[in-house]
Amino acid sequence: xxxxxxxxxxxxxxxGAVSGLVIGGRRKKQLPPAERPSAxxxxxxxxxxxxxxxxxxxxxxxxxxTIEEVDLPAAEAPPAEAExxxxxxxxxxxxxxxxxxxxxxxxxxxxxxxxxxxxxxxxSREHLDEDTxxxxxxxxxxxxxxxxxxxxxxxxxxERVRVLGTRTPQELRTLLREELLKLIAxxxxxxxxxxxxxxTPAVVMVVGVNGTGKTTTTGKLARVLxxxxxxxxxxxxxxxxxxxxxxxxxxxxxxxxxxxxxPEGGDPASIAFDAVKEGIAEHADVVLIDTAGRLHTxxxxxxxxxxxxRVVEKQAPLDEVLLVLDATTGQNGLVQARVFAEVxxxxxxxxxxxxxxxxxxxxxxxxxxxxxxVKLIGLGEGPDDLAxxxxxxxxxxxxxD
Length: 401
Description:
It is built from 13 helices and eight strands. The longest helix has 29 residues.
C-alpha cells in the first residue's frame, strides 16, 4: 500500500516539472528583444522576396481620394500619318524665242541710249569739224567698239556725210543704221547648232571664266531649246562649285530636262562623257554641258577643258562651244576670249548682263577679235531673258525710233 502511494506521488511530481518547463519555454519566446539576455547572439533574417501586391516603399500617410478625383491617364495620340512624298515640280512652258529680243528692246535701249543718241547728236551738227569727228571716235571707243572697228566706221561715215551734203535727222538715222549693221555683220550664222544630221544628239559645251553667269546661262539656254521644240539632256560638269549641279538640275526640272551629275570634286570629263552617253540612249536632240569657271590665266584648268572636249568627241562630234562673257567687263572680256579660243574651238559668244552696261560695242569688238558671231545675249534676271541675237533689232535699240 505504501509502495502504491509513493509511486503516485513521484508521478505527480514528474508531471508538474514537465509542465513548468513547457510554460517557461513559451514565456521566453514571447519576451521582446530588449528583455533578452545580452549574452545571447542576435540573428538577422534575410528579407522575404516581394510578392505580387507588395508596396515598393513604405506607405505614406496620405488622404484617400475618391474615384472622381483621380486623373485618368491621357489617351495615346494616334500614330502620325506619313508625310506625302513631295510632288514633282511642275514643268513650265518657256516663252517662245521668236521675238524675244523685240520684247526686250526697251530694256536694251535704256542701257545703250548714250551710244546711239550720242552719235546722232554729234552727226546732226551743222558743221562736222575735226573736233566733232574726234568726239564721235571717243563715243565709239567708250562703248568698247574697239580701235580698228571705230576707225573703220568713222571713215565710212565721213565719206557718206560728205557725199550726202544736207542731212535731215531721218537721213542720219538711216545712214548710221546701215553702217552699224555692216560693222556687226548681218550675214554671220547666229543660230545655235542643234541639228547635226547624225543619229547622235548635237553636243553644246558652255565655257567661260568665274562669275560670268555660265551655269545660269546654260539653264536659260535649255529653256530656249525646249521652247523651240527640242529635247535636252544637261551635263553638270562643274564639279568644283558645290551648288552648281543643284542649280543646273533645278533649271532642268523646270522644263523637264534630265540632268546628269556626279560627286562633288569628281572628274568633269567623266561626267561630260556620261551626259553624252545618256543623251544618245534617250535619243535627245541636244546635250548641254556646263563646265567649271576657269581663270584664263591658269594653264592647268585650261588644259582640263581641252580634256573634256577630247573625251566628249570620243562619242559624238562637238557641235558648239559657246563662250559666255560678261558684257560689263568690256575689253577685259577680249583677253579672256583669246585664251579660251586657243584651247577649244569657240563657235559662238553669249554676252550676259548687256542690259546693265552702256558698252554695247563689245558685240562688235568680240566678233572682230575671234571671228565668231554673238549668238545669244542676256538682258535681265528672268528665266526667259536670254534671247537669240538679232543684229537689226539690236541696232534699232541703239539708235531708237
